[in-house]
Design a protein that fits this description.
Length: about 500
């Protein structure tokens, strides 16, 4: 270690490895070599993984490196479902386990994962740890579990049946589940629904955030930003971009503005080459693609992409079809666009763009014509949902397999709709608002590919069509876009 430290003193560089990082860090701390401490901290941060994050978190508790300690703890919370299957988790103290499972920020899709984690921790050393069951079980949010799971897995578990306090606690939860709303964990991602127009054909300038774990919408409207409709929205590197659409005078625009999620301020960036409303927008390889749309005179076949680093839009090869009111998504390095309105008809055609060759290729057409369709990548397939076929509003959905170039039907939505928002959040496909039966709607539903079923979610506060959605994740200020957990009881 001293040899490495002397080398660093003379050269300003050092070879930090997994085998020497901790000892080097301890020596650097004892000798108060601030730069070397930071180099070691950077190494720990870069090498965080589910197999070492708990030991790094533990290790940093003995030294004053609060930033690294916090990052390691957040990593544990974010990757909990992987962390619990590692050996390090089994070596934690009871207080460490309590600190983890008490956190609102613990990222678990089903609360059952927390219960099963504490059972695994206790049964690793049953004689020493069985007494901790009544300390740990209250930290599990039992009221967020299905009653069937509680009865079949919790009440029947020996650690619960052998502990009178645990039995009473679980029984009380079952009795009160219909009366008391549980305190949900913080979501790993937030769904934003931006803009649109209402049934009175005005632009309400509304932005709502959906807290999927609490099944609740929060209004985060910023009145300093002009209203948007028939635009595209994309989330990229901490910013939400609103692309094209039309302005308050209902004129097509090429304007692009972005919302900084940390400062909650808007800023214009470089405009597109073309005015586009009813535009299709997606993100691929760190760039935002704007495809097709209507410029006020013509349906467009052109496409362009935005590079944030250079603040420039560059054109791509045009599509085979002119199309507005279509929808697109990125999957496995390619972009898929489906449906829309062409020169004179509602389209059932679909195309695929390969950025490596700068070429569009027609793929198998959908089974239905779909204007105002929602298209999204989900479960490694491309889903095309809803729309208007020229006669009726559609509630049907179909899914494209890129490997076989074929479409197949899946379960239909509960509500027919067109010009709605569509996104995937926590392994469910959400459809938001839209236009149905001659009016804008606020209702929201979601699809689970495992069960092939649609379920109802909480309605938005404002019914609107021609809105656009995007999903935010990894925000340091996630709580700003969720319902306060103290209000969830």
């Amino acid at each position: 270690m001293m040899e490495l430290i002397l080398e660093f003193a003379y050269t300003g560089s050092v070879n930090v490895t997994e085998s020497n990082a901790r000892r080097l860090f301890m020596e650097a701390v004892s000798l108060n070599i601030v730069k070397l401490v930071q180099i070691c901290c950077n190494f720990f941060e870069k090498t965080l993984c589910p197999h070492n994050c708990t030991s790094i978190w533990q290790f940093t508790k003995n030294y004053h490196v609060p930033e690294l300690q916090l990052k390691a703890f957040h990593y544990v919370l974010s990757h909990f479902e992987e962390v619990v299957f590692g050996e390090e988790f089994l070596q934690l103290s009871d207080q460490d386990v309590i600190d983890i499972i008490s956190s609102d920020n613990l990222n678990v899709r089903q609360e059952a994962a927390v219960f099963e984690a504490i059972i695994r921790w206790i049964t690793h050393e049953p004689q020493e740890r069985e007494g901790y069951a009544d300390l740990l079980l209250p930290k599990v949010r039992l009221s967020m579990m299905p009653t069937e799971y509680i009865q079949s897995h919790v009440l029947s578990n020996k650690l619960v049946t052998d502990n009178l306090m645990c039995q009473a606690m679980v029984s009380e939860v079952i009795k009160s589940k219909d009366r008391i709303l549980g305190r949900p964990r913080m979501p790993s991602a937030i769904l934003l629904a931006i803009g649109g127009f209402s049934s009175s054909r005005n632009l309400p300038n509304v932005i709502e955030a959906f807290d999927v774990r609490a099944n609740h919408w929060i209004n985060i409207t910023d009145l300093s930003e002009p209203p948007h409709a028939f635009h595209g929205a994309a989330y990229l590197s901490g910013y939400v971009y609103c692309v094209g659409g039309f302005d308050k005078l209902f004129i097509a625009t090429n304007t692009v503005c972005r919302f900084d999620l940390s400062t909650r301020t808007w800023q214009e960036v470089a405009p597109m080459h073309y005015c586009r409303f009813n535009v299709s927008v997606t993100v691929l390889s760190g760039c935002i693609y704007a495809i097709g749309g209507y410029d006020g005179h013509t349906r467009l076949s052109s496409a362009e992409f935005y590079q944030p680093e250079t603040n420039q839009w560059l054109e791509t090869a045009p599509m085979h079809e002119q199309r507005s009111d279509a929808s697109c998504t990125a999957l496995n390095g390619k972009i898929y666009i489906c449906g829309g309105f062409g020169r004179n008809e509602h389209l059932q055609t679909a195309e695929c763009y390969n950025p490596e060759t700068n070429q569009w290729t027609l793929i198998s057409p959908m089974s239905s014509r779909r204007n105002g369709v929602g298209v999204i990548a989900y479960d490694n397939h491309v889903y095309a949902v809803g729309g208007f076929d020229g006669t009726a509003y559609l509630q049907t959905a179909e899914v494209y397999n890129p490997h076989t170039n074929t479409w197949r039907n899946v379960s239909s939505m509960m509500t027919p709709r067109r010009n709605f928002g569509i996104e995937v959040v926590e392994d469910h496909l959400f459809v938001v608002g839209g236009f149905s039966h001659f009016t804008t709607i606020s209702d929201v539903e979601y699809y689970d590919s495992k069960t092939n079923e649609w379920s109802q979610a909480c309605d938005m506060d404002v019914g609107r069509s021609a809105l656009s959605c995007c999903v935010l994740s990894g925000l340091p200020n996630m709580a700003d876009y969720t319902i306060p957990r103290d209000l969830c009881f």
